[in-house]
Structures are given as C-alpha cells and as structure tokens.
Design a protein that fits this description.
With 229 residues, the chain is an alpha/beta fold. The two termini are 19 Å apart. Helices cover 46% and strands 11% of the residues.
Length: 229
C-alpha cells in the first residue's frame, strides 16, 4: 500500500501545463527567425527554450548568433506572430477545468508558478478564462532567477507558509521539473512539447499524459486536511 502524500497546496506551471501556449510560442519564434534568415537547426534551438524565462531565451539567441543578432526585430516579429494566433483564443490543456474544479472543491490552496512576466501571465489567464481562480500568481518578475532555479517554487511555498515538501508541483518541461524538484516539492510532470529526460523522470513522483491523470494521482495519493480530492 503506497503511503498517502501530506499535501497542503498545489503549485501549477502555466504555459504548456494549464494553457496550450507552448506550441504558439514555438511556432511564433520559429517563423520570426525564419523571416530574418535564421534557418540553421532552429527547431532544436526553439525546443531548448521551452520552459525558460524570456531573458534566458534571449541569452541563448545571442550565444548562438552573436551580439549582432537583431533581437529587437525578431522579438517584434515573434510578438506579432503570437498575438495573431492568440486572437483566435487561448485553449486550456485537456483536463484543466476538472483539475481546478476538484482542487477548489477540496479547498486546496493553489498558485500559478510561471516563467512568464506578470503582464503576460495575467493577460493569458484572462484570455483562457481562469484568472479569477487564482489569488496567488508568482511570475519571473518576483525573483532574481527564474526556472530552472528553485526560487519561484520556494517563494510560492513561503506565500502559503508551507515547506515545499508539503506542495505538489505540476510541470510540463524539463526546466520546470528541475526547478520544482530542487525546491523540494513533490513533482508531477505532464510532458507537452518536450520529451522528459531520464533525469526528469528520476526527479518526478509521477510522469503522466494529461491533467486528468494528475487528478487521478492526487486522488490516489493526496489529501488536504480531512478532505479528499
């Protein structure tokens, strides 16, 4: 019999975990790079950026193409591509509503923990129709070092007055898993665009196909006070 987890809060990544945005970001950046003449294995480069904060992605571009890389122009093209795609709406990942409903019914504290800026996170959560569900929103603007640093998850746990070990973190990327695990949170991975590495699998309590399966894991292993998920 597997021992139950003593869960006091659930910490949720946003892009690629709750919101189906990672493909939007990937396609938008790839198109922007191509439009400016950068076509050398850019698919691999864009995949390596999944789950990283914007400044880290910019540093990767400069490292790859040099300081003369036209960052401002590519960034403008990326934003234009992204906004055009998002104008049609921002879908939630499969099982997101059911998971959020179950956590709220169990009165389980939950937070968004994202590498996006506060402005972007707030806008995208509103666009997806779930901003009102979260009182606690932690973004890259709240820490000096974003994911894969553990700082965001450590801060999120402290906001609830908890140790990270009392929190479940749900992530879609290897960088996010590294951050959550380093903080000490119980980590569940729902891979989106990036295949989990062996290191990520070893760091996770579970690797599952969708958010519906996350809810199943919480029901099997988790509890909040005397209430079940």
């Amino acid at each position: 019999m597997t021992a139950p987890w003593n869960i006091s809060a659930v910490l949720l990544d946003m892009d690629g975990t709750l919101l189906d945005t990672e493909r939007v970001y990937f396609d938008s950046l790839l198109a922007a790079l191509t439009a400016h003449g950068f076509t050398d294995d850019t698919t691999t480069l864009c995949q390596a950026m999944v789950g990283l904060p914007g400044p880290d992605c910019e540093a990767m571009l400069h490292a790859r193409y040099g300081e003369s890389f036209p960052l401002a122009e590519v960034s403008r093209a990326f934003v234009s591509n992204r906004d055009e795609i998002l104008s049609a709406g921002l879908p939630l990942k499969s099982g997101a509503v059911e998971l959020l409903d179950a956590l709220q019914a169990a009165e389980c504290p939950m937070a968004i923990v994202t590498s996006s800026s506060l402005r972007t996170a707030d806008a995208h959560l509103r666009l997806a129709g779930i901003r009102h569900r979260f009182e606690t929103l932690l973004t890259r603007d709240d820490v000096a070092c974003g994911k894969p640093s553990p700082d965001l998850y450590l801060l999120a746990a402290s906001r609830f007055g908890l140790k990270p070990e009392a929190c479940v973190a749900v992530e879609d990327s290897n960088h996010g898993v590294t951050a959550a695990h380093a903080a000490g949170a119980i980590t569940i991975m729902v891979p989106d665009m990036v295949t989990p590495t062996e290191e990520s699998r070893a760091r996770c309590a579970a690797v599952v196909p969708d958010l519906g399966a996350v809810l199943e894991v919480l029901r099997e292993r988790g509890c909040f006070g005397s209430r079940s998920f």
